[in-house]
Design a protein that fits this description.
It is built from one helix and 26 strands. With 398 residues, the protein is mainly β. The protein is globular and about 55 Å long.
Length: 398
């Protein structure tokens, strides 16, 4: 019996040692997580202020911030509203006093006051059949793309005066190796020093295209891994298949940085690819790689410190914002959840930051809103996902 008892005791000691080792590893992992810092945010449930004239938003498809921290959004208006339940004032005859679609472009000041509105068809230019994305360049001009049968992009002054149209209106798409027109551009971003515009091109084409921001002169383009783009239909994304050597559509963002890189949202492939500004491939990261359908990598914004240390990634399918270390591509934490309350998301589509570090988001499909998340400084990472980031003292989801 003694040998058996010794065996039992020995086994118990081994189990205790293993258990202690696992516990120590768990504690060490938690300690490592809490030793990391990341930007922290709280939703501002009172921003923006209510719109006038019984106006409401349709699918909100873009957001940008100018040098004054004025926030511009673009939405799709009446075409994305339910005529019976949302837009009774626009029916013929009207069925109610409320509501009607706001103009496509709305401008808010930092306090959330609506200070201007404009957009839609006008003299001298063709408004996109499906506007998509709005960004502000280094001269405070406003650029708008389109993901309908749209093969051009538009440039306006910040008060809505038409400046230029680049590309060929009505051209056949896709044509990813064409230098005369674009293929349903998702978003435009800018390199101020080089005076270049980077087009995520896009919903028809499968490339990044770069043009002169003043003249529209076509300068260069590339596909996934820096390859020549190929318009062959690659079929649906399979998370268990080898990574394909081309972008799938849509190529949803192409964001240049101060230190010479370009971060590209290959949305249906659940990946971000990083390039040098000449199109040389550097590295990639997969985000939530088992996400199907709309994909996980929708839009990117950078922190406003000179090093752009942090990157914020909007994931409209999983309804959250990832806070990432830009250079290492490590996800530090995330916030958000699916829902209609402040701080929650339904298809968070676009993201931008202001000079104070605040984040602005818009939501497409049935989301139909813009939200502000107030920067609260750096804080320890205590959770992989913080959930709904309510203001302090009001019942936080963190």
């Amino acid at each position: 019996m003694k040998p058996k008892r010794q065996l039992i005791i020995g086994g118990t000691l081994v189990a205790l040692i293993v258990g202690l080792g696992l516990a120590q590893a768990t504690l060490s992992e938690a300690a490592r997580a809490q030793s990391r810092e990341a930007p922290m945010f709280e939703v501002d449930p009172l921003w923006p202020k209510p719109l006038p004239n019984h106006w409401i938003l349709g699918s909100a498809i873009g957001v940008g911030v100018d040098s004054r921290d004025h926030v511009f959004i673009v939405h799709r208006g009446f075409s994305t509203l339910n005529e019976r339940t949302e837009a009774g004032a626009e029916t013929d005859p009207p069925t109610s006093e409320c509501c009607r679609a706001a103009p496509p472009v709305l401008e808010f000041d930092p306090e959330g006051n609506l200070v201007n509105s404009w957009g839609g068809p006008g003299e001298g230019y063709t408004w996109p059949t499906s506007n998509h994305g709005i960004t502000v360049d280094h001269m405070d001009n406003i650029w708008i793309g389109g993901n309908g049968q749209d093969s051009h992009v538009l440039k306006f002054s910040r008060d809505g005066r038409f400046l230029a149209s680049f590309g060929t209106v009505g051209a056949e798409v896709p044509a990813s190796n064409d230098t005369t027109h674009f293929g349903r551009v998702a978003k435009i971003s800018f390199d101020a020093e080089a005076n270049e515009a980077y087009l995520a091109d896009g919903y028809g084409n499968k490339r990044v295209a770069v043009i002169d921001a003043s003249t529209g002169e076509f300068k260069r383009y590339w596909g996934a891994y820096g390859n020549e783009p190929d318009d062959t239909n690659m079929g649906p994304y399979d998370p268990d298949a080898p990574l394909i050597q081309q972008f799938r559509t849509p190529v949803h963002c192409a964001e240049p940085t101060n230190d010479g890189f370009v971060y590209v949202c290959d949305r249906p492939n659940d990946r971000i690819q990083v390039f040098r500004k000449d199109g040389t491939f550097v590295e990639e990261v997969r985000i939530a790689p088992r996400t199907l359908g709309d994909g996980s990598t929708w839009d990117i914004a950078f922190s406003r410190d000179p090093e752009q240390r942090f990157m914020y990634l909007a994931d409209g399918k999983n309804m959250k914002i990832y806070v990432m270390d830009r250079r290492s591509l490590e996800v530090l934490t995330s916030f958000g959840d699916g829902g209609r309350q402040p701080g929650q998301f339904f298809a968070v589509h676009s993201i931008a930051t202001d000079s104070q570090g605040n984040i602005y988001t818009t939501e497409t499909y049935e989301g139909k809103r813009v939200q502000r998340f107030v920067y609260k400084g750096l804080g320890p990472v205590t959770a992989e996902n913080q959930g709904t980031v309510w203001p302090s003292g009001s019942g936080s989801g963190r």
